[in-house]
Amino acid sequence: MQPYRDSFRHVMKATSLFGGVQVFNILISIVRSKFIALFIGPTGMGIASLFNTTINVVDAVTNLGLNRSAVKDISYAKENYEANNVARTIHVLKRLVWFTAVIGAVLMMITSPWLSEIAFESKEYTLSFIWLSVALLFKQFTHSNLAILQGLQKLGNLAKANLVGNTVGLLITVPLYYFFRIDAIVPAIIIASLISFAITLYYASKTKVEKVPLTNKEAFSEGKEMIQLGVTLSVSSVITLLAAYIIQIYISNEGGVDAVGFYNAGMVILNTYVGLVFNAMSTDYFPRLSAVSNAIEKIQNIVFEQAYIAVLLILPIIVIFVAFAPFFITLLYSQEFTPTVQFVSWGILGMLFKAVSFSLGYIIIAKGDSKVFIKTAIGFNSILVVMNIIGYTYWGLEGLGISYFIYFIIHFIVVWLITYYRYDFTFKKEFYYIFGISIVLCGVAFLLSYLEDDVLKYVSLSVMILISSIFSIYYIDKKIAIRDLIQNFFRRKK
To answer: What is the Cα gyration radius of the chain?
Structure first.
């Protein structure tokens, strides 16, 4: 019983650590988004969004997925006590990233007129994209530093790197937006990338790694498997980002740059504020799952624990956002962004299904099942693009929210079927009970949000928040014994 409880506690501890980091980052993001929204408005946010999306696409095309495949290789070597292999893998990663980063920056410079034309239907932003190649260069270096910390499971340093990087970035970039408004977008992106690189380098260098003599030829030869898996992951990332890019371009062409700003604001809420659980759990979850990728029983336990905790943590968050979406959007941005309320209200319901499919999807990556991974990436993103285009064409931003909600349900069903039939994975019955009740609670909260009487609506929704919170705490407590955990904490303090 104790090892079982300890395992759940590890999941909760790691999720809480990075959940806390995410909450802090969210607070910083709230301040930053608030100021940026006030200083540059929806148009400026739309431009910034298209810049960042373009950088991400070029990054995904050129980084060979090394930031994710390296985590798998480093964590596997660490788990199997292969100290020499750990050091060698890290040095191979560093050598390969130098190559991909330079190639990426040069490619972005060369294609800058084309990128400007695609994003803005004009070559007006050519020079901006040339300058942004610097941000791309340091973005890849930053990701390699984070991969090292994640693979070695240096969770404390990883958390500090995120906290310090975001804090310093806020203090430097917000004044830029205040003084230079829209003209600050490019300098702010570049400066933020430099700050992130410097801070992650500092924390990564605190982990002493044995020096290994390595030639370029040896690096590419020994990094062959890392590159192969990375390319698979990279292709998937490219497909995902291209899908997002197509959606943004379509919205821009149909509804203007302002509409892109509204859409991006909604996606930030879904992916950052509500999705903090996913960001928190993936940091520790992927290395642990990769380390036992050949043991199906251990995989079953790890995935069950992660999905169980993820669902219970995200449940009250979803209910809270469903209840107070207009308030949060006004708080996070401004009154100008109220058109995104319906998008968020629908899209957020899909997050519950994403919590499960997210946990299941990592099995495919940990197994290194390249063919399945690529096929699912192409299929899922094709469905998403088509559904988003249909949704926005006929129902605007609300249609986008509905399409995201339906998409996440489809994604969950398909991933569940793949892991069941291909890897013989099954959840324990108690998980389906937890998941089913959570679906009902979210559904009831969503229906109550449409009550016309404001007093009745918010009283009812407050009750739902209370019920969902009690439900989550009760079932988390059953696995980790919260009271014992608190008592042990204070005993250690004494």
So the answer is: 22
> Do the beta carbons of residue 256 and residue 133 sit within 8 Å?
no
What's the CA gap between 309 and 4, in Å, rounded?
A: 14
Question: Residue 233 pLDDT > 80, yes or no?
Answer: no
Which helix (H) or strand (E) element contains residue 42? helix 2-62
What one-character-per-residue DSSP string does 418-467 give? HHHHHH-----HHHHHHHHHHHHHHHHHHHHTT-S-HHHHHHHHHHHHHH
Any residues with CB less than 8 A from the CB of 414 and at least 6 apart, and which? 376, 379, 380
Give SS3 for 215.
coil
**How many Å is the maximal CA-CA distance in the chain?**
71
The structure's pTM equals 0.73
Please write the tens of the pLDDT for every residue from 415-441.
999 999 888 888 888 899 999 999 999
Q: Distance between CA 419 and CA 431 in Å, rounded?
A: 16
Instruction: State yes or no: pLDDT of 81 exceeds 70.
Output: no
Q: Quick one: tokens of 328?
A: 């949060």
Contact 142, 197 (CB under 8 A): yes
Could you give the CA distance from residue 472 to residue 449 in angstroms, rounded to a whole number?
21
Is 89 in contact with 262 (CB distance < 8 Å)?
no
Q: Which residues of 79-105 are buried (b: 16+ CB within 10 A; e: fewer)?
A: eeeeeebbbbbbbbbbbbbebbbeebb
Residue 188 to residue 473: CA distance in whole angstroms: 41
How is the chain split into domains, by residue range?
Answer: 2-493
